[in-house]
Amino acid sequence: MLKKIKLLLAEDDELLASLLNFRLQKSGYDVTLSRDGKEVKESLAQGMPDVIVSDIMMPYFSGIELIDFVRNDLKSNIPIIIISSAGNEENVLSAFELGANDFISKPVNPSELLVRVAREINKM
Amino acid sequence: MKATYLTYQTYALINAPLIHTDLIWDLTILFAVLSILYFACVFFFRNKISYRNKKSTQRKRELTPMVSEFLFHEPEATKEENTNYVNLKIEIRELLKEPVNRKLFSEILLDLQKDVLGETLNRLHKLYIDLGLDQDAFSKLKSWKWHVVSKGILELTKMEVPKSYGIIKKFINTKKGVIRKQAEIATVTLKHEGINYFLDTTTHKISEWQQLKLLDILRNFEDFQPPRFKVWLTSNNKDVVLFSLRLVKYYNQNDANTSITELIKHKNNQIKTEAIYCIKEFNIVEAVEPLKNIFWKCTENIKLLILGAVASLGKEEDIVFLQLVANKDSSFTVKSKALGAINTICPESVMPTKGIDKKLTDSSWKEVMEYNGESEEYVLVEPKKDKLPIEEDADTITDIPVASKDIVDSHLPIEETTKESLIEDKELVDNVYGIEVFTEERPSEINDKEEETIDFPEISIDSSPEEEEVEEELNFLPIVVGDEIDDKIFLNDGIENETDINPSSINLDDDGIVIDFLPFIVEEQEDNIEVANIEVIYEEIVAVENDKQFKINEIEVIDPNVVTTSKNKSIDITDNGLSAQDILKQQDDLTISPVKENFEFNFIPIVEDITENKECKNDTVELVDTAEVIKTVIPKAMLPEMTFEEKAKQLLDDIEEFGDQREVSLLNGLLEEDAYKFISDRIQNILKKFNDDNAPSIPENENLKPFSVFEDLFRICDTEAKLILMDEIVAVGDEKEIIFLNDLLDDDDASICSKAEKVLKELQNKLMAQNILSTENLKTISQEKVSKEYSTLMNELEIEPAKPTDIFDVEFEFSEDVLLTGESDKIETKTKKIHQASFMSHICSFSNKIINKFNG
Question: What is the ipTM of this complex?
Answer without folding.
Answer: 0.91
